[in-house]
Design brief:
Helix 3 links the parallel strand 2 (about 55-60) and strand 3 (about 80-85). This protein has helices at about 15-25, 35-45, 65-75, 85-95, 135-140, 160-170, 180-190, 210-220, 235-250, and strands at about 5, 55-60, 80-85, 100-105, 120-125, 145-155, 195-200, 205-210, 255-270. It is built from 9 helices and 9 strands. By secondary structure, the protein is an alpha/beta fold.
């Protein structure tokens, strides 16, 4: 069974959500070539799910190109793919097909599903694009049945610290998104009335041949959208300066520069 449904969206900031959807839509065809870090995080999150999901209905929220949707299928799940970007959903459909899978375009802050519809909800590196984490957490809990599980990953404050520091030496514009603190995650869980949960907090470093290679990866997955940033401000000269500043921060014996990510892996028992 296949179903493609466009839900009514009620985001906190419609224009910003549209800009995010557009950025990821433009990156849909290139995403998989640049998403090694995203796969790493999602695979870590997958270890927290049951190994056998036979006949269970599982929502992949922020499914992107369907990489994890396919893995959930392989565990026997009846998967529902949901993403803000219709272009991403098309990529997911190409990968996962149309048998025992459904596709919905929708917003994590206002999910187009009934209460208690899913056995499990899986969402990897999508929730950081929401203005208030408690909103999607509430919705994920609402659509999960009693006894089910919610599995999510998001980025925390300190992620991409090297890139942010290098840009701070060049101008006063915001080039890197801000990420929430661990305390804000805990507050959001409390606001969503999550009573039983577990958090893992790995620090992951990804090494690149240059700062520009990192920025190409961010653009390639659509994560180059920065809230409130004025466009057209990044000159070639600024990029050359960025490379020099980045090299001054840290590099390894192979001449590679790091991108540090502070990751939160969460499991909520419903």
């Amino acid at each position: 069974m296949t179903q493609v449904v466009s839900a009514d969206l009620y985001p906190t900031n419609v224009s910003n959500k549209q800009a995010i959807a557009d950025a990821f839509g433009r990156a849909a065809s290139s995403y998989d070539r640049h998403a090694a870090f995203q796969r790493d995080v999602g695979l870590r999150l997958m270890t927290m799910l049951p190994s056998d999901l036979s006949h269970q209905r599982v929502l992949d929220l922020g499914c992107g190109t369907g990489f994890f949707s396919q893995l959930l299928q392989q565990r026997g799940a009846n998967v529902v793919c949901c993403d803000l970007s219709s272009a991403m959903l098309e990529q997911a459909k190409r990968r996962c097909g149309t048998e025992n899978i459904e596709y919905y375009q929708g917003d994590a802050e206002s999910l187009p599903f009934t209460t208690g519809e899913f056995d499990h909800v899986f969402s990897s590196l999508a929730l950081q694009w929401c203005d208030d984490l408690s909103f999607p957490l509430r919705e994920m809990m609402r659509v999960t049945r009693d006894g089910g599980g919610i599995y999510f990953s998001t980025l925390l404050d300190g992620s991409l610290c090297e890139l942010k520091h290098a840009w701070s030496k060049i101008d006063t514009y915001q080039h890197v998104n801000d990420f929430i603190t661990l305390n804000q995650v805990k507050i959001a869980l409390a606001q969503a009335r999550s009573k039983v949960h577990h958090l893992d907090l790995p620090t992951i470093k990804v090494w690149y041949p240059s700062a520009l290679a990192l920025m190409r990866d961010l653009k390639g997955i659509g994560a180059n959208h920065v809230k409130g940033r004025a466009h057209g401000l990044t000159s070639r000269q600024s990029l050359k300066r960025l490379e020099r500043e980045y090299q001054n921060i840290e590099y390894n014996h192979q001449g590679l520069v790091p991108a540090t990510y502070q990751v939160c892996l969460g499991k909520i028992d419903r």
